[in-house]
Amino acid sequence: MRSKTLLIILTLTFAACAEPGGLGAPEDPNAPILQVRSEGGFMPVEWALGTGPRYTLLADDRLIYSGPVIMIFPGPLLPNYQVAQATDEQMRRVLRLVEEIGLPQIDHEVDDSAMNFVADAGTEMVTYWDDAGEHTYGVYALGLETDGPQSAANSALQELIEVLGEVSAGTSLGEYEGERVRVVAGVVGATRETPDVREWPLGETDLSEWQTLQNGWRCKVYGTEILDQFRDATEQTAWTHPDEELPFKLLVRPLHPGEPDCPAS
């Protein structure tokens, strides 16, 4: 009942400020409304390919986020995705900040003006979905000092991320596994130490139909049934392939709603 009430609140809030054919809440409670991710910066390819969004907010006010990381080395292969519930007040703040950023009026825009002052920083990207489609706004080096104050839109984006952080600090509803699992495979270099080497964990071994990514990495999406094959694997685990001389490193994680099956090549 609470989710239905919130969807009504969302619809009325959006309709109040929308032009004809503009904003509207998704009918599917599992549909994404908002997603925040970090891109770029001086990061290795493996990090870029294997790291998911920071936050994904769904239409029924649930938030998918990365939970605490176990402080051991090597760390677990699978990410610790958790789900939290936003309060009505937190949702009102989110909606206000979406309007302050101007997301409903943006198709795709990135403020990279801080590149003149900060090197090798990341870009914080927020994507907002409504019945008009997808709206994305990004800020390079968000929150870092430059030669002047942040714009109103950038300050609103920083506050939005803080609000989502407050939601994630609440009580977890449990682990998130989703419906799709992305597997990215890359050959381990001959000089790389691989103390934990295991047999190829997937039923199929034909890699010809996998999507080819940057630096020769390959990608394919499976269902959640494969997750059990990786629960005790670590970031350092390597996997032998019957048709390859060198073992593979696999990056495995459940996809958030709104993410494509594989990243752009």
Short synopsis of the structure:
The chain has about 260 residues and is an alpha+beta fold.
Explain the overall architecture.
With 265 residues, the protein is α+β, with helices and mostly antiparallel strands. It has 2 domains: 2-175, Mago nashi protein; 181-254, no CATH class. 20% of the residues lie in helices and 28% in strands. It has helices at 2-17, 45-50, 88-101, 152-168; strands at residues 32-40, 55-58, 62-66, 81-85, 108-111, 122-130, 133-140, 172-175, 181-187, 197-199, 211-212, 218-222, 238-240, 248-254. The strands form 2 sheets. The protein has an 8-stranded mixed sheet, covered by helices on one side. It has a 6-stranded mixed sheet with strand order 10-13-14-9-12-11. A hairpin with a 5-residue loop joins β11 (211-212) and β12. α3 (88-101) runs antiparallel to α4 (152-168). The protein is globular, with a radius of gyration of 20 Å. The termini are far apart. The model is unreliable at 1-23 (pLDDT under 50).
Task: Name the assembly state.
Answer: single chain
How many beta-strand elements?
14
Strand order of the main beta sheet, please?
Answer: 5-7-6-1-2-3-4-8
Report on the biggest sheet: 8 strands, mixed
User: Pairing-aware structural class of the strands and helices?
Assistant: alpha+beta
Topology pattern, helix = H, strand = E = HEHEEEHEEEHEEEEEEE
List the helices and strands and how they pair.
Blueprint lengths: L1 H16 L14 E9 L4 H6 L4 E4 L3 E5 L14 E5 L2 H14 L6 E4 L10 E9 L2 E8 L11 H17 L3 E4 L5 E7 L9 E3 L11 E2 L5 E5 L15 E3 L7 E7 L11
